[in-house]
Amino acid sequence: MIVGTVREIKNNEFRVGLTPEAAQELVHAGNDVVVETGAGLGIGNSDDNYVAAGARIVATAAEVFAQAELLVKVKEPQAAERAMLRPGQILFTYLHLAPDPDQARDLIASGAICIAYETVTGDDGSLPLLKPMSQVAGRMSIQAGASALEKAHGGRGVLLGGVPGVMPGKVVIIGGGVVGFNAAQMAAGLGADVTILDRSAEVLEKLGIHFEARAKTRFSNRANLAACVAEADLVIGAVLVPGAAAPKLVTRAMLATMKPGAVLVDVAIDQGGCFETSHATTHTDPTYVVDGIVHYCVANMPGAVARTSTYALGNVTLPHAMRLAKLGWKEALRRDKHLANGLNICAGQVTCKPVAEALGLDYVDLATVLQ
Q1: Minimal CA–CA distance to 5: which of 29, 38, 28?
Q2: Coil vs helix vs strand at 34
Q3: Judging by beta carbons within 10 Å of its beta carbon (0-12, 13-18, 19+), is residue 79 exposed, middle or buried?
Q4: pLDDT at residue 243 above 80?
Q5: Residues recognised as catalytic
Q6: Fewer beta carbons below 10 Å: N end or C end of the chain?
Q7: pLDDT tens digit string along 79-98?
Q8: 118 phi and psi angles, rounded to 5 deg
């Protein structure tokens, strides 16, 4: 199969769908790998590295789109890229369709087979292709929040870890999943006063055992959430409903109860955000202020640490890409129910129920398209 990857064109996105090492594995398995020139520069890999791995270099993304039967990317295709998709072509990348009707409409019209990293599942109900980026984003959220809290960046002027004789900053993390756990690790490591909210008693128990006295846990209900947000210097939004739009948990009314210059970091922004006042930002212009509260809502946070992120992502996506290239999309999905859960749009039909519900579109059962 011809497998292709292109230079990502989303604002300040430096990751790449295939590393030279991944390209080498695909070539060794008998595939033809085509790479847009410069695709790997953001992670420190030149065209020569890809050529040494057996890949072919072409001058433009259009050439990759025209040749590739399987496209492996990182971020959702931008409008110019969506226009180059063709019927039957396999697109394997993050999509985050629930808050993005324009992208969904274009992918439906393309006739392509669109498999989303973020809805591929694991045996334990986890999201293994989302996990490494959630780990990165969770850890980065504390770095980003700490920076935004600096007075020069519009924040309260609070050092999260404090100093002897001065109280540490208060960090509230909404959601105790992968993002929340990693955010808590970073915040606790800095010496911050950390509280994690979640609705699962099992999750809260595990967090309590792991962090002991280094972080507090509270059941997430409206009263507890409101009380915690009001006292926080930094709030991390780390909630996820797989495939669906994120619930708006922090309302605009809550901002009036917060300390001026406090910071909200919305890691759920790819799924529409979990703060009522959130809208996506970029690494170029990452923050804005609403009612005196600093918002950091960068939609591709892991892109800032592109090398770490690319290699972490490639470790979990490559085995699936190898199977898609070997078996074709239909047979690969028939054999692997978890990969099949990643199919969001197939030849003009929406095959992910949460996406269909979020966008008010007709849903077609997976079994129907895999017959």
Answers
A1: 38
A2: strand
A3: exposed
A4: no
A5: 96, 270
A6: C
A7: 999 999 999 999 999 999 99
A8: -75, -10
